[in-house]
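Severity: low
Component: inverse-folding endpoint
Summary: output formatting inconsistent between runs
Steps to reproduce: submit the following structure tokens with default settings.
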């Protein structure tokens, strides 16, 4: 399974800073301080797309090509060179439970950003609980509270429910944004998602 965050419009009152294109159709985005239509960030685990024989592309002969494509896009976005964690991909179940707890405390987006910085800027393995705790500390989640939370049935159940919800919505991978039932999957669809939200 892959892990990440899906965003869905709802009425929970959780606002997500809108991503606006810095240049028209350029695939470059910058965060906008003004909140967008109310959305909810949902940490989720997703199954590989149909037709992949149960494997992520990262575990197939297409791995090198896929990594090169991600690095190319990151450079286009103006991001620093990626530092790939080892192993990658790894079992991020604990990290996703931590993200679920972060959501419950209103820190889903900040934890996700901190986690991705740990993984792909610092090259730290998120299968290592210590690195998950570092990401939590970066968004003011106390390590002891986080360690306790990831073992609770409430957090485990919430992640399962979010994963089931993502499947019901048709989410096959992350990042994904759901606008009025339409799934926009992948960083190259973010601008389309913003435009769809603006129209509805």
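Observed output (run 2 of 3):
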């Amino acid at each position: 399974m892959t892990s990440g965050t899906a965003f869905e419009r709802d009425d929970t009152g959780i606002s997500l800073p809108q991503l606006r294109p810095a240049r028209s159709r350029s695939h470059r985005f910058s965060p906008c301080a003004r909140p967008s239509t109310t959305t909810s960030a949902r940490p989720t685990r997703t199954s590989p797309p149909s037709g992949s024989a149960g494997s992520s592309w990262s575990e197939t002969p297409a791995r090198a090509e896929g990594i090169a494509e991600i690095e190319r896009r990151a450079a286009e976005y103006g991001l620093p060179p990626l530092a790939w964690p080892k192993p990658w991909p790894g079992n991020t179940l604990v990290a996703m439970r931590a993200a679920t707890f972060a959501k419950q405390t209103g820190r889903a987006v900040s934890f996700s950003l901190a986690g991705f910085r740990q993984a792909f800027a610092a090259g730290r393995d998120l299968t290592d609980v210590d690195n998950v705790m570092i990401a939590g500390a970066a968004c003011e989640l106390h390590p002891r509270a986080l360690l306790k939370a990831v073992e609770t049935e409430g957090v485990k159940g919430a992640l399962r429910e979010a994963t089931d919800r993502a499947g019901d919505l048709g989410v096959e991978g992350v990042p994904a944004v759901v606008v009025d039932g339409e799934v926009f999957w992948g960083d190259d669809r973010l601008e389309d998602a913003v435009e769809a939200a603006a129209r509805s």
